Every structure is written in C-alpha cells, then in structure tokens.
UniProtKB/TrEMBL annotation:
Segments forming domain OmpR/PhoB-type: 1-92
Classification via Pfam families: BTAD, Trans_reg_C
GO molecular function: DNA binding
Record-linked SUPFAM superfamilies: C-terminal effector domain of the bipartite response regulators, TPR-like
Positions of the DNA-binding region: 1-92
UniProtKB keywords: DNA-binding, Transcription, Transcription regulation
Family: Belongs to the AfsR/DnrI/RedD regulatory family.
InterPro entries, alphabetized: AfsR-DnrI-RedD_regulator, BTAD, OmpR/PhoB-type_DNA-bd, Sig_transdc_resp-reg_C-effctor, TPR-like_helical_dom_sf, WH-like_DNA-bd_sf
PANTHER family assigned to the protein according to its UniProt record, in alphabetical order: TRANSCRIPTIONAL REGULATOR REDD (PTHR35807:SF1), TRANSCRIPTIONAL REGULATOR REDD-RELATED (PTHR35807)
Name the UniProt record assigns to this protein: DNA-binding SARP family transcriptional activator
GO BP term, pick one: phosphorelay signal transduction system
Length: 242
C-alpha cells in the first residue's frame, strides 16, 4: 500500500484507491495512517471523531467505518486493517507512508550539515520538501489527535525550510532566496530564524538598510505581541550590520 499524508490524503493498493469518500471514515484512516504499525486505541478514535461527547452508538458506528475501510482494502487486494486488543492497527510498514521518506531525507540533510557538506544538505532538504503537495491532510477533518499530528508535521516542514535556506545561504545563493524569504517572514512574523536568514540574504545582496528594517519590524512585533526582545543571536546579527 502507498499512503500519502503530506497534502491531500491518498492511499492506493495496486494503483487502486482504498479511501472512502465520507469524511469520518477518512478521518479514521488518516489517524491509523499517521500511526501506521501502531495500535490506535478505541477511546482515541472516539475522541478524534466526536471529542468528549461520543454518541451512544459510538462503538457500532466505529465498527461500521472499519468495515467500510476493510471492504475497500480487500476489493483492492489487501488486508491491512487489523484488530488488536483495545484498538485497531494499519498493519503496513512505516515506509508505506510518505512521511517516512520525508523524515529519511531530512535526516540525510542533517547528517550532511554535520559534515559541512552544505550543497548535499540543501539537495536533501529540497527533496524532502518536494514530497509535500500542500498542507498535511488538508482534505481531512481533524479532531484532537489528528490536529496534534498535523501540527507536528507542519512544524517539521517549517524547520526543514529553515534548514534548507541556511544551507542555501552557506552555498552563496542569497540573491535567489530574497523573494522567498520576504514571503516567509510575512507569513511567520515572529520567526527569528527566518528573520535572521532574511537579514543575512539582504545584507549580502548589498541591501543593508532593508536588513536593518527587517530587524526593526521583527522587534516591534515581538514586543507588541509577546512582550519580549529578540534573542541575543539576532541582536548580535543586528549589531554586526550597523
């Protein structure tokens, strides 16, 4: 089975979709997919689907969803949805889910950074980010557990973007990063790493005044929104540009 969660949810067996069209069965599959190979307890599925107010028919309804998923899988020639004591498991290797490839490439990028091989690091980080087709599970309703998983994945994605940009800067590609960094800092106005990268790219491109303006904008936002000053690292970068 091939499962993709880094964007719209997709799951195929022999090129045939095994996903239902209804929202809640898709939600069940999505939670099982992001925890592939691990048992998801029934109470966790209840909380995911209905919060802290599951209906009296919750057990029967969940079993109906599971039957729908199993029928779709068996029609495609697989039998991967197992019952375990107290829960269900999507019994596929973790490598069946695109997150595994993403995390493998990110780790390869980090190892290259440790070797100071920034060209290779940038390549691996780019390849990892290319696996994303949009926000994680963008077409699936999310309850408590899936919201946590989506947040974890999106945080990892942003961290990988930061790592890729750092590697690109170390390869001297500051000019080509300017437009992207302008968008990213506007989208994440409290992110100090992105601001530092933006300041660095601007300064190296001969735009020192704009680099200082980027710092002032971040500082104003941090003080107004959080009541804190920029980190010592960012203040040092700012002083180096004066």
């Amino acid at each position: 089975m091939e499962i993709r969660v880094l964007g719209m949810l997709e799951a195929t067996e022999h090129h045939r979709s095994v996903l239902p069209s209804a929202a809640k069965p898709r939600q069940v599959f999505a939670l099982l997919a992001v925890r592939a190979g691990r048992v998801v307890p029934v109470p966790t599925l209840f909380a995911e689907l209905w919060g802290d107010r599951p209906p009296r028919s919750a057990h029967a309804t969940l079993q109906t969803y599971v039957k729908q998923l199993r029928r779709l899988m068996r029609d495609a020639g697989c039998d991967a949805l197992g019952t375990r004591f107290g829960g269900y498991v999507l019994d596929v290797p973790s490598t069946a889910v695109d997150v595994a490839d993403y995390e493998r490439l990110v780790e390869a990028g980090r190892e290259a950074v440790e070797r100071a091989d920034h060209e290779t690091a940038a390549h691996h980080f780019r390849a990892a980010l290319d696996l994303w087709r949009g926000p994680a599970l963008v077409d699936v309703p999310t309850g408590d557990s899936l919201s946590i998983e989506v947040t974890r994945l999106e945080d990892s994605r942003l961290s990988t973007v930061e790592c890729r940009i750092d590697a690109e800067l170390r390869c001297g590609r500051h000019h080509v990063l300017l437009s992207e960094l302008a968008v990213l800092t506007a989208r994440h106005p409290l992110n100090e790493n992105l601001c530092a990268h933006h300041m660095t790219a601007l300064a190296r491109s001969g735009r020192q005044f704009q680099a200082l303006e980027a710092y002032r904008t971040l500082r104003t936002t941090l003080v107004r929104e959080l009541g804190v000053e920029p980190s010592s690292r960012l203040r040092s970068l700012h002083l180096s540009l004066l």
